[in-house]
Design goal:
Helix content is 39%, strand content 18%. The protein is α/β, with parallel strands linked by helices. The longest helix has 32 residues, at 218-249.
Length: 733
Amino acid sequence: MDAVPALDEPLKKVLGPATAKVMAEHLGLHTVGDLLHHYPRRYEERGQLTHLADLPMDEHVTVVAQVADARLHTFASSRAPRGKGQRLEVTITDGSGRLQLVFFGAGVHKPHKELLPGTRAMFSGKVSVFNRRLQLAHPAYELLRGDAEETVETWAGALIPIYPATAKLESWKIGKALQTVLPSAQEAADPLPESLREGRGLVPLPEALLKIHRPHTKADVEDARARLKWDEAFVLQVALARRRYADAQLPAVPRRPRPDGILAAFDDRLPFTLTEGQRKVSEEIFADLATDHPMHRLLQGEVGSGKTLVALRAMLAVVDAGGQAAMLAPTEVLAQQHHRSVTEMMGELAQGGMLGGAENATKVVLLTGSMGAAARRHALLDLATGEAGLVIGTHALIEDKVQFHDLGLVVVDEQHRFGVEQRDALRGKGKQPPHLLVMTATPIPRTVAMTVFGDLETSVLDQLPAGRSPIASHVVPAADKPHFLARAWERVREEVEKGHQAYVVCPRIGDEEDGGRGKKKTPEDEAEKRPPLAVLDIAEQLARGPLAGLRVEVLHGRMQPDDKDAVMRRFAAGEADVLVATTVIEVGVNVPNATVMVIMDADRFGVSQLHQLRGRVGRGSAPGLCLLVSEMPEASAARQRLNAVASTLDGFELSRIDLEQRREGDVLGQAQSGTRSSLRMLAVIDDEEVIAEAREEATRIVAADPDLERLPALRTALDALLDEEREQYLEKG
């Protein structure tokens, strides 16, 4: 027998350059180890045929079926004018349904000889429709003969693995390639400590790899899956536990508020009492700030649960202790909005060094990229001298020129828009690492928080402050029932007549050069044959039509910062009735007088985005109304998503629905960093128990052996997970 190729051997040495190239380009597989971890999506049983009745349209499928009938037709065409064109039609069946295969031209000869009635084979191709019937045109196929030695060898075992495949590489070709590299599985170093593996009754890694690719029974598949899920959960949790451990070793300056300081003065002037939730979370934060290693905490809460107030109290506690606090916002609109609301909440406490300022007041500085040179110079000076206790800004805060006198706390708003490089750059501005508080308004199920934000302690605000009003949400089916849309605009007028204001949200701005046609189209776009609705078009139509006579303004991301700020100020002051905007208003915008929101083409937004947007209304004492306008048909997945949003105001429930409908990949952030998910077997929502147990084990092991000196195989697995791209993937959250 030849020597077994090592797991890091390049595939082109083992499988040849042509196959290796397709695997690298289309499946991201480069080494023998990568291929061994390319697991089957499902298994076909020899004696039981796939259901042809359930074939999805436009997808690449692999089916096992029997030839019922094969006919060769001749026809005339431009290429074969004398009636010499040939078309082979083969009907296959699996007992649940029938499917037609078609082959043309020179491609008919081989299947005509091989696909005789009664023959069983695996067929792979893209499902299309012709004459109202499903068909596969020119499918690749592999005969399942019980006698030919090679086939028996290749399809050994009772279960046929079906792999995630591409048009360029069918499932069985991947299966054959695996047959070649499978002996290498015995070389796989086992990352799980033996005591852990035996204690949990998990099979060794080489055995798991053999069983996942060549199972003899369903129990084999279960054993393999249980083991491989543990690997993924455990290695990821060890990476996070090591980061928590390393952070805990860093020194930080403890920051305790003074009993008679600015925080106490701020609390005295609050016109309302804190909710139980706000008090509890504040205590957790103050306890962290008082320690001599940096706080790393995630503050997640429902839209409108008062996260900003909790963060501001933490910032004031740090100012009390002689330090400075910085709040990092993802957009200029949001930075300006935070600056405005913080200075309003603080009143004379924000007027440090100014006439009329309170005696223990501080200065609150805004720093954004578009500020004028003089204002910017001023702000930078206030930060360097320590004159400004609080600074609120965009990533302009991270630039090299920005120097702090004594940075004690960094608050990052809307975490998912900031990479960790930015978080670290800002943390590097402190003489010692500052404390870190990350806020997110998109509630995250507990398991996802443990997986994605596993390096942070978590606090949850799930109570809404008193005085918040309920929001009613309804889907408006514009195509099926146009009169519902007309009624929606009447409701907007009624609210404005009562003295309230409204938002209308659209997916697109409308001044794009190609009218949005240049983008890649989703199936929904194709179905609708029109680009998403645009702010500039809708604003004009409304001002001329159903909302004529009302004061309609527009707001979008490509306006000049000063213009954006002016529009927001006018709207907040009640000088505009209706604001037609893109999602720039998604987070943090606070106009209590706005009671109704109409979201156009609501199906173009994600579940959590719709939940965020909806949180902009119902912020005052009058009840809120959110209307989700869509032209998608009632049975579509998009409409089901909208019905889910309309049916609950619970962000945690919605985030679960969102996760179940999308792949984890999107949630874990590789969509942003472009890396492949390291989770192939683990489903973050379903495998809650595995993740929680893996986290406990990982924490225990890292505490006992931080450098994993006694566990070299685990270190190797960790290095593989944390190559540069994965490092980003983990960090970005």
